[in-house]
Specification:
Helix content is 5%, strand content 31%. It is mainly beta. The protein is globular, with a radius of gyration of 15 Å. The relative contact order is 0.25.
């Protein structure tokens, strides 16, 4: 697996209408992936969601709408952010642990202003066994086996 050095790189993104915007400073979490769990498929209306992450301490909501509206997909464990105006899915964060310097803000790769970058090519597909049969899985590029499939988290 080829890793891209993203330390100090600035990333921006947001929703379709522009109300919810964010800025993140690299490095990325190094784990861009697709998720085919039932929650991701139902929430997005798509075959999978494409995720990447940034340290929360390097992430800011900076659009006119502030933070997105949050929905707890797994109450007490994980919440997902969307724009209350245009409905765009934007982010997700695990909330069942205390916030630390290692807390990751997950963002949906298509919400980035420039998603076509090598650091955002998915290297794994979570819940691949739950993917639609007609969707070919992406080959995992992890150096070690993925953790046991669990409910979708960022």
């Amino acid at each position: 697996m080829t890793m891209t050095n993203t330390a100090g790189k600035i990333y921006t993104g947001g929703c379709l209408c522009g109300r919810i915007r964010y800025t993140a400073t690299g490095p990325t979490d190094g784990f861009p992936h697709l998720c085919s769990c039932e929650h991701c498929k139902k929430r997005s209306g798509a075959t999978a969601m494409a995720w990447a992450g940034f340290l929360l301490i390097n992430f800011a909501w900076d659009g006119p709408g502030g933070e997105p509206t949050w929905y707890e997909t797994y109450p007490g464990k994980t919440k997902r952010g969307f724009c209350p105006v245009c409905g765009s899915q934007i982010a997700g964060i695990d909330i069942d642990q205390p916030v630390t310097e290692k807390t990751i803000m997950g963002i949906l790769i298509p919400s980035l202003d420039e998603p076509e970058q090598p650091e955002f090519v998915p290297i794994h597909q979570g819940s691949a066994a739950r993917a639609f049969s007609w969707m070919p899985p992406i080959p995992s590029q992890l150096d070690e086996p993925a953790p046991a499939e669990q409910p979708s988290t960022v």
